[in-house]
Recover the amino acids of this structure.
């Protein structure tokens, strides 16, 4: 990551997954809200009550875990890039790259466990949230201990990143404990997007591809960096509002039966019903064969 490209790559990953999560959870919230407004059935209101998930299904092909596969591939790509560029001229592996490899490794493990959960392997409940929280926690720990002997501005921008990472972890823990809270889910996605945008900003501050370089020891420029960090918070809030507006308008255009179909796919009820019927039929056939043998 000691380059412009090295900060743009993880920033792109966090931005893509964060923005997608923001839109999908807001869409789910408005879908659930519309069901509660148009139906008089208490059963349907309870069944389609909003609850967050770590990942969200694709509307085009809900059976395939595109998001989980994307995170796993991103982790592998990041690890490969750090390993390829991690050797100095004498052939020794650079410790800094080892930090980055470890960070990607934890996200890879978390995405693999989420994949197992998608295919209904018997993993403990909330294991996906717990492992992803661990991955973010390890990321924050590694970056916090990544700053010894650096320039003041270098330390500053990475400390802001560490603050964002730990806020992201806290939001994810809050979401895990309260899956019906849309605010907790939005907070988790919000800090994921903020982390991605700040990765970009670090790249432009420390390794500017054009223009003048920053004076990494100038107090006035360090104060400007703090203002820019605050602007990132504001810009992401505006983006949340825009995504919420788009999701709300799209849901308003849907008929009630389309809303139900979307939620059936989103929550995976159809897949669960098919699996239940499959197991029910297989149990029935076993029972018949046992009776015939008797």
């Amino acid at each position: 990551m000691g380059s412009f490209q090295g900060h743009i790559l993880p920033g792109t990953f966090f931005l893509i997954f964060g923005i997608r999560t923001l839109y999908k959870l807001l869409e789910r919230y408005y879908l659930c809200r519309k069901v509660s407004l148009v139906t008089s059935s208490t059963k349907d209101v309870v069944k389609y009550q909003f609850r967050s998930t770590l990942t969200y299904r694709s509307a085009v092909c809900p059976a395939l875990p595109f998001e989980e596969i994307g995170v796993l591939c991103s982790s592998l790509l990041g690890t490969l890039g750090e390993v390829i560029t991690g050797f100095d001229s004498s052939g020794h592996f650079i410790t800094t790259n080892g930090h980055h490899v470890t960070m990607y490794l934890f996200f890879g493990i978390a995405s693999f466990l989420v994949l197992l959960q998608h295919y209904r392997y018997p993993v403990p409940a909330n294991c996906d949230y717990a492992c992803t929280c661990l991955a973010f926690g390890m990321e924050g720990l590694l970056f916090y201990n990544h700053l010894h002997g650096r320039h003041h501005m270098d330390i500053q921008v990475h400390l802001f990143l560490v603050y964002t990472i730990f806020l992201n972890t806290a939001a994810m823990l809050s979401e895990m404990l309260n899956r019906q809270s849309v605010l907790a889910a939005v907070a988790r996605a919000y800090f994921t997007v903020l982390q991605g945008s700040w990765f970009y900003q670090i790249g432009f501050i420390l390794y500017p591809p054009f223009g003048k370089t920053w004076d990494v020891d100038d107090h006035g420029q360090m104060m400007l960096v703090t203002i820019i960090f605050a602007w990132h918070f504001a810009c992401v809030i505006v983006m949340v509002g825009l995504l919420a507006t788009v999701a709300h308008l799209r849901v308003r255009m849907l008929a009630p039966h389309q809303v139900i179909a979307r939620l059936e796919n989103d929550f995976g009820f159809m897949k669960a019903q098919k699996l239940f019927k499959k197991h029910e039929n297989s149990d029935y056939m076993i029972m018949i064969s046992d009776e015939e043998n008797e």
